[in-house]
Amino acid sequence: MPTLTGAEIIVRLLERQGIEFLAGIPGGANLPLYDALSHSRIRHVLARHEQGAGFIAQGAARATGRPAVCLATSGPGATNLLTAIADARLDSVPIVCLTGQVPSPMLGVDAFQEVDTYGLAIPVTKHCFLARSPEELLRIIPEAFRIAASGRPGPVLVDLPRDVQTGLASFDAWPEPGLPDAPPVPDPLAVARAASLIGQSRRPLLLLGGGAARSGAHRAARLLMERCGLPAVSTLHGLGCAPADHPLNLGMLGMHAARAANAALEECDLLLAVGCRLDDRATGRMDRFCPDAALVHIDIDAAEIGKRRATQAAVAADARLALEALAESLEPAPRLAWRVRVTTLGEQWGLRPPGLDDPRSAYGVIAAAARAAARTDGPDVLVATDVGRHQMRTAQVWPQVRPNRLLTSGGLGTMGFGLPAAIGAALAEPGRPVLCVSGDGSLLMNVQELATAVEQGARVKILLMDNGCLGLVRQQQELFMGGRTFGSGFSARADYVALARAFGMPAFDLAAAADPETAMAEAFAAPGPCLIRCAVEDEPHVLPMVPPGGANCEMICQEAGTVETITAKEAAHACA
Amino acid sequence: MPAPDANAPAPAGTVLELTVSNHPGVMSQVCGLFARRAFNVEGVACLPLPDAAGEDGGGGLSRIWLLLREDQRLVQIVRQVEKLHDVRATRLLPGGHPVFSALAAHLA
Ligand SMILES: Cc1ncc(C[n+]2csc(CCOP(=O)(O)OP(=O)(O)O)c2C)c(N)n1
């Protein structure tokens, strides 16, 4: 019968859970846990800010699909974690956060570094625990992993008062590691109803979200596209489910979609939305979204169904299982007219970003980086982004060949996500480079993690798009605030090449490279981290763009900023 | 304090009856969910359930009754509540529940 301290119990449970590394920062309230970790084979990654630790865990979890762990002390450690937790919640990322807390008898007396972590965590976690005894940890820790990974994944926080870490518990046997519950299977009646609606539709459209990517629904999705003439659009997190170069794939929908994608939404008579929550950046004004379409919604989270729009059929189940069941119940259908229409839309109104063939331009450098990465490591390297214009450009032009390879903060849109997430992904997938496309605004929000990347030898390759401003904000001011660019420029600019070197990270300026693509390929092939600066002061706007609050069918497509309406109903009628 | 008025009118509304794990924080988690989604809760009552030994030995189960205005978002919000891990069971009582008539008597 083992007798161990709470801290030792936690560490053993993490080992049994298969955790290989975790990121965190020690402090008074989690020191017993750190002491127990010092005897463990689990690798500790010392972050330089708890938000960095949270995003390192997120990067690992997003890359592998399995829960990853971060640690923080009480008070400021816990509050510093909150942004990364909220981000994980909105993007359904399974992380387990272990926070130190003041000893139980001191709870509620405003002790040193006491905050109500549990209370702060409730609205941003999938679930949270306040451990009250060392014995309870044997149930709580595996349960935290089970909850984080089951159904729709999400962050779970366990608050650990110091006395719970130091107290002893005797117990008979170790509990089983916490594994995800079996995915919920689709109800055959619901599938039959969905299949019958799709069967009757003339212009059905598939919308693939992060849930489709996460559940591995891409094969079934591709089958449906081919067999049933179902063209596809994707959310930011669904990119890669459909092959980027497939003629029936119109790419991302919504605010920065190609006109073709939003036009297809306008023309479809049925939308099959899979593993997505119909968020406003994707749908635009909801009352004008897919105006002629019946909605068939598949989501593992029943609470998503009917949240934004009433459905004509719905399947609350795992996206892959549901799509496979649908594929089995649907007869092959040519839908020739619709296929032709969509192919034409793609040819007419596909994305044509400017400067794609100039490797020193804002779009071209991303395309060149993708080619360089493919040269060294194949076409499916992991790419993390920060938040801003560089993020939307990456989503628009990075050739996505399979799902879950683009790590980006979609729901919360958190600047500072990119670098630590890339570090976590690189540690989870050692031996291959992880590209981090960032902006000068975003990089500065977690710039301290340059030190972590160097210390860990993480093979993170930062492509810094340096424009001396908060680009996406500036774009909105130029387009929607009468050109008054206020509070969005940096008059003090950093020398980022020198900054990276100051942390011991190799760095160079792309302007100095004779052949940018080759220089990037060499940088990617090298071990360890690296920063590549690319000046993009004269960058174009990220277009097309739906004005915030506008309808998807009204997009700005030209630098001049006039809104164009992209409905083409007469053509749709030709397919009827 | 005056005696409760047994003939006070029962407050109108649908009652959502929840069976939840009884530990600190659950009440605020449930009420917080309604508050965050701007859904008005007209009344709340809560009591620990007798004889329900909790699996964690930490105090078993409680029953919460929430008095709600019928609203088209009700089905949605119930789904959201069902997602909470501390919520073990839910029951919608469109005709209300006597616990609120009893409470209302104290206001009369
Ligand atoms: C933490 C945080 N603060 C503010 C914002 C609002 N915001 C969105 S994009 C952006 C500018 C991003 O600038 P940068 O990282 O340089 O990227 P760029 O748009 O220039 O490519 C800002 C301030 C945000 N998304 N996240």
What does this structure look like?
The complex is a heterodimer of chains A (576) and B (108). Helices cover 39% and strands 16% of the residues of chain A. In chain A, helix 6 links the parallel strand 6 and strand 7 (156-161). Chain A starts with a strand and ends with a helix. Chain A has three domains: 3-170, Thiamin diphosphate (ThDP)-binding fold, Pyr/PP domains (Rossmann fold), CATH 3.40.50.970; 188-349, TPP-binding domain (Rossmann fold, 3-Layer(aba) Sandwich); 364-535, Rossmann fold. With 576 residues, chain A is of the alpha/beta class. Chain B has 108 residues and is an alpha+beta fold. Chain B is 27% helix and 29% strand. Chain B has a four-stranded antiparallel beta sheet, covered by helices on one side. Classes of the chains: A alpha/beta (576), B alpha+beta (108). At the A-B interface, strand 6 and helix 6 of A face helix 1 and helix 2 of B. The structure holds thiamine diphosphate. Residues 386-390, 413-415, 439-442, 465, 467, 470-473 of chain A line the site of thiamine diphosphate.
State the strand order across the main sheet of chain B. Answer: 2-3-1-4
| Strand adjacency order, main sheet of chain A | 3-2-4-5-7-6
CATH topology of the largest domain in chain A: Rossmann fold
CATH H level of chain B: which superfamily?
ACT domain
> What is the architecture of chain B at the second tier of CATH?
2-Layer Sandwich
Spans where pLDDT lies below 50 across 5 or more residues of chain B? none
Write down the CATH class of the largest domain in chain A: Alpha Beta
The SS-based structural class of chain A is alpha/beta
Q: What is the end-to-end distance of chain B?
A: 11 Å
| Radius of gyration of chain A from CA coordinates | 24 Å
